[in-house]
Amino acid sequence: MYQSYSQGTTVRTGTVVELRLSKGLEPAYYTCTMLVNSPADYTGGDAAVVLYGTDGTQLYATVTRSFPVTVNVSGIYNMPRGQLYVTYYVNEEQSTTDDWGNVTTQSVQVTKTDGPTVVNFAKQ
Q1: pLDDT for res 24
Q2: Which candidate among 49, 53, 56, 110 keeps its CA 20 to 30 Å from the CA of 102?
Q3: In which region does residue 8 sit, left (phi positive, over 0), alpha (psi from -120 to 50) or beta (all else)?
Q4: What one-character-per-residue DSSP string does the chain give?
Q5: In the prediction, which pLDDT does 121 show?
Q6: Whether pLDDT at 58 is above 90
Q7: Nearest alpha carbon to residue 62 among 40, 84, 81
Q8: What is the percent of the chain with per-residue pLDDT over 70, rounded to a whole number?
Q9: Residue 80 preceded by cis peptide, ω within 30
Q10: Banded pLDDT at 12 (limits 50, 70, 90)
Q11: What is the pTM of this model?
Q12: pLDDT at 18 (0 to 100)
């Protein structure tokens, strides 16, 4: 909504006040077609690729062991964009020192998430 004078403003009789009303956004459907490449430090194993709409709705999800992943979703109602996440595991070396000063190093699996990446959808 728009009005040419702020709410509560007093105007003289006969002054033209411009008002604009809107029915809101026209309903629209969108599609998302994209290739998702692996994160730079991904070395293999399971990776979850998940696409969410701006309202938090999960639009697409898959678990993969190979990239690129093709995402193809249509019929997305009234959401022109979303957010993409890729969750995967990497092995990191962690060192610990015991009470006697002995250092041990072990490989530990760590969960990492790449995202959010903003994705613009195409209007159908």
Answers
A1: 73
A2: 110
A3: left
A4: -EESS-TT----TT----EE----PPP-EEEEEEEEPPPTT--SS-EEEEEEETTS-EEEEEEESSS-EEEEEEEEES-SEEEEEEEEEEEEEEEEE-TTS-EEEEEEEEEEEEEEEEEEPEE-
A5: 97
A6: yes
A7: 84
A8: 98
A9: no
A10: confident
A11: 0.72
A12: 84
* Among 97, 94, 95, 41, CA closest to 67: 41
Distances (CA, A) of 93 to 26, 82, 87, 106: 53, 35, 19, 6
Antiparallel, parallel or unpaired: β 103-120 and 58-64: unpaired
Residue from 122, 33, 119 nearest 72 by CA: 33
Q: What is the pLDDT of residues 61-102, one digit of tens each?
A: 999 999 999 999 999 999 999 999 999 999 889 999 999 999
Tokens 């990776």 locate to 47
Q: How far apart are CA 108 and CA 47, in angstroms?
A: 17
Integer Cα distance of 7 and 5 in angstroms: 7
